[in-house]
Amino acid sequence: MKLFDLHCDTLYECVVQGQELYANTLHLDLVRGHRYAPWAQVFAVWTPDTLRGEAAWAACLRVLRFAREQEERFPDSFSVIRDLAGLDAAFEKGACAGILGLESGAPLNGSLEYLDRCAAEGVRVVTLTWNGENELGGGSGCDPEAGLTSFGREAVRRMEKRGIVPDVSHLNRRGFWDTAEQAEGPFIASHSVFSSVHPHPRNLGDEQFREIVRRGGLVGLNLCRDQLGTPVGESTFDCLRRHLEHGWELGGENTLAIGCDLDGTQLPPEWGGISVMEALYRYLLSKNYEESLLERLFFGNSYDFFRIALTRGAPIE
To answer: What confidence tens digit (pLDDT) does each residue in 82-110 have?
Structure first.
């Protein structure tokens, strides 16, 4: 089957735990992932809310450089994607098409210069905050009305010029609408589900989702039990299905995607990390959803979005 997943924390965990991307004990590695063809994966570089300034940048840069090292070590299995030609080339040779992102804009250090440096390192997605506050604005754990800072608004505009996709997962409510006000094009929520199905500070409201639909963005459904609202003893797949159907009811057939949050949330060990995507696909197919709809969910919507997103932005000199 085809897979395009919008969010994992695997590169960060590889660096912290001293493991390789090719084969490891984490949720995701190239060996398990290559059962999917084609396979594209957004690798987010998480920055804890305790890191700021040069320390945040140094930690981020270490993970970004690790991605390049893994590409050099395993060139037939992993490609870091900078543009559309790179995406197509990775699919042609059967490699994982790795798109680099940040999870928290803290490494930007309150400076557009650092945003340009990220672009030069190949970053194509930036989740503006994590749960706390940084120089761009407030996350889901902050005052919901404390939106983007002046730098945050400026950064969103610069991201679009540099071909970087703004990601509103983890933003608070005001920050979301500030992003919508500043962004001229589409943006994404890489790993989010619905507050109407289960109330959680990280979940999207219906109007927020409709705004992403209107702009032609993406919402990646994640596997976090707390956000899904999975009761003890109930199948996570059943709960995820409720969120999925709610999104479809709101007109999200071309918006909903997969954003598992592998290596960023707890999963049952028996799922085998990324291997569980096959089981999830079979489960949804057993509920009599059209295969064409599931193909859009697991691959097509994200592929169509990034085929355009990877052509945007001025080159970095």
So the answer is: 999 999 999 999 999 999 999 999 999 99
* Residue count (the chain): 317
Q: d(Cα 152, Cα 87) in Å, to the nearest integer? A: 29
> Phi, psi (5° rounding) for residue 137?
160, -165
Q: In angstroms, rounded to a whole number, what is the distance separating the alpha carbons of residues 142 and 316?
A: 34
Residue whose C-alpha is closest to residue 78's, from 103, 101, 95: 95
Q: What is the DSSP letter of 265?
A: S
What is the token pair recorded at 304? 């169509």
Full DSSP string of 174-213 = HHHHHHHHH-SS--EETT--BTTTS--TTSBPHHHHHHHH
pTM across the whole model: 0.97
Rounded to whole angstroms, the Cα distance separating 295 from 273 reads 20
Per the CB < 8 A criterion, the answer to whether 138 and 175 are in contact is yes
Give the span between the Cα atoms of 46 and 238, in whole angstroms: 29
78 strand-pairing partners: 96
pLDDT digits (tens, 9 = 90+) for 20-50: 999 999 999 999 999 999 999 999 999 999 9
